[in-house]
Amino acid sequence: MTILIHLLIIIEIIPFTWVNGGRSESFAIQLPISIINTVISIIGGVFTLFVSKNILNKYQRGITRICWFFVILWSVGFIQQLLGTPFEKMVCSFILFLGVISNLRMAIEKKRVTIKLTS
């Protein structure tokens, strides 16, 4: 969903003033931000696929820490979205809330697996 929103911004279907708290003064300023956010979202999606497949068991403790870091990061992002534009409050905050829940679930589930492996 995040990738779709940024692609819609890049192809100028969604106005750039609706995101980034409305702070971008021009499309030229918003374009690199949207491209970077799209790349980061793709990397996050790949990470989520690896975590869900449970492929990297020997790196479980590190993966759990990364998941908890994402919980904190997405929670801060959620608060920022609530302080943003109406579009961010209604659409982006909902997407981030789902991300917080998803990352929290991955962190908790993987932590249980880590405890079982070390016991």
Automatic annotation (TrEMBL):
Keywords: Membrane, Transmembrane, Transmembrane helix. The chain crosses the membrane at residues 27-51, 63-84, 90-108. This is Uncharacterized protein. It comes from Psychrobacillus soli. The lineage of its organism: Bacteria, Bacillati, Bacillota, Bacilli, Bacillales.
